[in-house]
Specification:
This protein is of the alpha+beta class. Helices cover about 30% and strands about 20% of the residues. The protein is built from 15 helices and 23 strands. Strand 13 and strand 14 form a beta hairpin.
Length: about 525
């Protein structure tokens, strides 16, 4: 049940909500074995909670590193690569709780003081000086924003604007069935500059085209990051590459808990019965009392299709209906000179072709800073382009064109880079992120499945709570573990979220539970 009496808030927001995990014993008394498929955030969260409570866990990861879609890896000469920049917002209570398992003071993270959004006309929005507590946050932002004028505000659809502060979860997710993020902003009559801000900061962070992104998700993001939370829009980033700062230490913790971590071990099929699960691997069969399926959405669809239980037919169909977002491209450049000292460590961009943001990695990442020091002060710059044309996946010429355009736009954003040489360049293109489309929220698979031996976790999994992206992955990982622990009479993991309703939501008696 939702707890109104809290001694220890996870952040500065006094309205943060604790969703209590299932009650029971502190540790399991039975011999239970759970297979966790996937070593990303969702799988790591589930494995950690289960192992802490004495469950024997085998974590199966098809790749050669932990972290899933937030992984990093070495590429030689003390250089590393990743899938792109990730912001660890202060609202990510559950992800941060996972990291606190091995780093109680979160020394692995460092704050980014600001992340301005820049346009070609020179107008730039900033988030560093605005108040963090609603409603002063929105008042402060409007007062200082160069993109919103008093005349602009007169044109806003007030009725639609009030919807942003009347949210209530989970109703908000399904209440905008059929409406896209772009269509909602059309109806809202947002000023052009503010519309760009909403789309660039929120919608495109989901790697999605705004016309193919759910309005309910966009509105939830306004609430979670800005209009409903006192944590504000500030965020932290890891002090080094993801593996060094986050996943290697967490992996060592899991080893101390007795988790059997098996890397480079793809699961070929899963069968579940009333008595447990059977997983087919390349080197044999693994049996377990239950399985947590915590892979990326494409792999989850393939494994769901492999299950032969008749009771899962409708569930398999629901998983098959999930979709992936368009591809994204990451270009990391090791330059032979520095970018201007005035450049922020992270810059959002709008109106620069496919370029969505630029990161100057030596400003916060220890490995990049070391490379810079050893190579004459050169900068390590990362370019990110979301929602690219699908042709970049199978037509090298199209990918080369996007990479070239990203670098040309960098020269527009940071003109000094046009005169710098590129010592190294690394390019990555992927299309394995989920897209939360305008329709189908109520049909999306959640943590629970028809089988007691199978639960889901991941950022693509439906969750009634106001969470998204990495935080949805961590949260559903906890909820998956809680589902199994609750069945076995073991105390689960509490989950924290931003408020479950907006500032102007109509009064209603709440009775939230942490189980999906």
């Amino acid at each position: 049940m939702l707890s109104r009496f809290r001694l220890d808030l996870p952040g500065r927001d006094r309205r943060a909500v604790r969703h209590a995990g299932p009650a029971g014993l502190y540790r399991i008394c039975q011999d239970r074995h759970v297979a966790v498929v996937g070593g990303g955030i969702a799988g790591l969260a589930a494995a950690t909670v289960l192992a802490e409570r004495g469950v024997h866990v085998t974590l199966l990861e098809s790749g050669d590193r932990l972290g899933g879609r937030v992984a990093s890896w070495g590429i030689g000469e003390d250089r590393t690569m990743s899938r792109g920049f990730h912001a660890f917002f202060r609202q990510y209570y559950n992800l941060r709780a996972l990291l606190k398992r091995f780093d109680p003071d979160l020394d692995c993270l460092v704050p980014v003081p600001d992340y301005p959004l820049q346009r070609p006309d020179g107008v730039r929005d900033s988030f560093s000086a605005i108040p963090r507590t609603p409603p002063w946050s929105i008042i402060g932002f409007v007062a200082q924003s160069p993109t919103i004028t008093a005349r602009d505000l007169l044109g806003v659809n007030l009725s639609a604007a009030l919807e942003l502060v009347r949210v209530r979860f989970p109703d908000t997710y399904s209440g905008y069935q059929g409406e896209s993020a772009a269509a909602f902003l059309d109806r809202l009559r947002f000023p052009t500059g503010a519309r760009d801000l909403a789309l660039e900061v929120f919608a495109r962070s989901f790697f999605a085209d705004p016309d193919d992104f759910a309005a309910g998700e966009l509105i939830a993001m306004f609430h979670t990051y800005f209009l409903g939370s006192a944590e504000g829009l500030v965020f932290d980033v890891p002090v080094d590459d993801y593996d060094t700062a986050l996943w290697a230490p967490l992996g060592r913790l899991l080893a101390r808990f007795g988790v059997a971590v098996r890397m480079s071990t793809p699961v070929r099929s899963i069968d579940v019965t009333e008595s447990g699960a059977r997983l087919t691997l390349d080197d044999g069969v693994l049996t377990a009392d239950a399985v947590v399926l915590a892979t990326d959405p494409r792999a989850a669809r393939e494994l769901a299709a492999s299950t032969r239980s008749e009771g899962l037919a409708e569930w398999r169909d629901a998983v098959a209906q999930t979709r992936n977002a368009p591809p994204f491209v990451v270009v990391r450049l090791w330059l032979d000179g520095p970018v201007a000292a005035s450049r922020p460590p992270f810059l959002g961009t709008s109106g620069y072709g496919p370029l969505d943001n630029v990161s100057v990695l030596e400003r916060f990442e220890a490995g990049a800073a070391q490379w810079s020091q050893e190579h004459g002060g050169g900068s390590v710059v990362e370019l990110h382009g979301y929602a690219c044309d699908p042709s970049v996946m199978d037509r090298p010429a199209d990918l080369d064109a996007v990479v070239e355009e990203l670098q040309e736009q960098l020269h527009r954003v940071m003109p000094e880079t046009a005169g710098l040489g590129v010592s190294h360049r690394e390019v990555l293109v992927r299309d394995d992120c989920p897209v939360i489309g305008p329709t189908g929220w109520d049909e999306r698979p959640g943590v629970r499945t028809p089988s007691p031996a199978l639960v889901l976790a991941g950022d693509w999994v439906a969750c009634d709570l106001p969470v998204a992206l990495m935080e949805r992955a961590a949260t559903t990982g906890y909820l998956a573990a809680n589902t199994l622990l609750g069945r076995w009479g073991v105390r689960g993991q509490d989950v924290w979220t931003t408020p479950m309703s907006g500032l102007l939501a109509s009064p209603r008696q709440h009775s939230w539970t942490a189980l999906p």
